[in-house]
Amino acid sequence: MTRQELIQNIFNKKSFLCVGLDVDLAKVPQHLLKEEDPIFAFNKQIIDATADYCVAYKPNLAFYEAYGVKGLAAFEKTVSYIQQNYPDQFIIADAKRGDIGNTSKMYAKTFFGEYKVDALTVAPYMGEDSVVPFLTYEAEKKPWVILLALTSNKGSFDFQQTTNQEGNRLFEQVIKKSQEWGTPDNLMYVVGATRGEMFKDIRKVAPEHFLLVPGVGAQGGSLEEVCRYGMTKDCGLLVNSSRGIIFADNTERFAKVAGEKAKELQQQMEKELNKIINN
Fold first, then answer.
1. What is the pLDDT of residues 256-268, one digit of tens each?
2. pLDDT at 158
3. What is the per-residue pLDDT for 46?
4. How far apart are CA 186 and CA 137, in angstroms?
5. Cα–Cα distances in Å, from 274 out to 7, 217, 226, 231?
6. Long-range contacts (CB closer than 8 Å, 24 or more residues apart) made by 111-117
7. Residues 92/56, Cβ–Cβ less than 8 Å
8. pLDDT at 275
9. What is the average per-residue pLDDT within 205-211?
10. Which residue numbers are catalytic?
11. Which of 59, 86, 90, 178 could bridge across to 21 with cysteines, CB 3.0–4.6 Å?
12. How far is CA 238 from the centre of its chain?
């Protein structure tokens, strides 16, 4: 999916919601455990219930790899189901890969060649040769890299906000340097929603790039604050919600409730998008 196609879809659907498919079998409705593939059975109903209200899905690979071959099969079926039934959805494999060049090439082949997802989250801290193989991979559709920049976890203070002698924080150095490798057409950044006003600092060094924003909802991030400091004329945001949508209910009504939660967020997002349209 191109940048322009993503932007068009956001304004057509009046949503910049990304639904995180982080499936934990300990939390899914018990009746689904009788299914041959409970992970896919859960995802299928969640997708069908939320597709009208979101523009992206983000399965987190850890929640599939934890179940071995069966989990990876469920991941593959989930991706294929979205591609076949909801081709306007932007699919992000949240795998946080990144290794020496030859290894990164194989990771790129896995996700862009085999699974054919639109985007992959990548860890930047091994530098250029660990990131560029993802950006330059030859695929049917131009792949996106979503680079970890400023995350919302407690440990992010250990490294990401440390400063060099010039006073630049590490996450700012990562964003500035990585723009030598990619462009707003194929490079996004992960920025946690709980960072609030720090989106102003992000926008100083990445004014045009899309940001993938986890942490709204269950983690306490404010959608209004994210939009106030991080939204651009092209929206420039994909705001992810996982637990707050997919695990909002654990009865046989789980999919219906998930759809309602997604719709609530979409309606909030529509109000924020209208501020751009009306300006």
1. 999 999 999 999 9
2. 61
3. 98
4. 11
5. 14, 21, 15, 12
6. 111/143, 112/137, 112/139, 112/143, 113/137, 113/139, 115/75, 115/76, 115/79, 116/79, 116/83, 116/140, 116/141, 117/79, 117/91, 117/92, 117/93
7. yes
8. 87
9. 95
10. 96
11. 59
12. 7
Residue recorded with tokens 């987190």? 60
Q: How far apart are CA 47 and CA 82, in angstroms?
A: 8
Half-sphere exposure of 232 (CA within 13 A, CB side): 17
Residue-wise pLDDT tens digits, 80-111 = 999 999 999 999 999 999 888 899 999 999 99
| DSSP per residue, 89-100 | SEEEEEEEE--S
Query: Which is nearest to 146 in space by CA: 137, 158, 135, 130?
Result: 135
C-alpha to C-alpha distance for 114 and 116, rounded to whole angstroms: 6
Task: Give the integer Cα–Cα distance in Å for 191 and 68.
Answer: 30
206 burial via Cβ count (<10 Å: 0-12, 13-18, 19+): buried
| Burial zone of 214 (CB within 10 Å; 0-12 exposed, 13-18 middle, 19+ buried) | buried
- The owner of tokens 């409705």 is 29
- The DSSP result for 237-278, as a single string, is EEEEESHHHHTS--STTHHHHHHHHHHHHHHHHHHHHHHHHH
Is there a contact between 273 and 30 (Cβ–Cβ < 8 Å)? Answer: no
The tokens describing 26, both together, are 């300990």
pTM of the full structure:
0.94
The tokens of 171 are what?
């996450």
Is the pLDDT at 218 greater than 60? The verdict is: no
- 108-138 in b/e form (b: 16+ CB < 10 A) is beebbeebebbbbbbebeeeeebbbbbbebe
Q: What is the pLDDT of residue 136?
A: 92
3-state secondary structure of 102: helix
Do 135 and 145 contact (CB within 8 A), yes or no? yes
- pLDDT band, very low/low/confident/very high, at 126 (cuts 50, 70, 90): confident
DSSP collapsed to 3 states, 146-164: EEEEECCCCCHHHHCCCEC
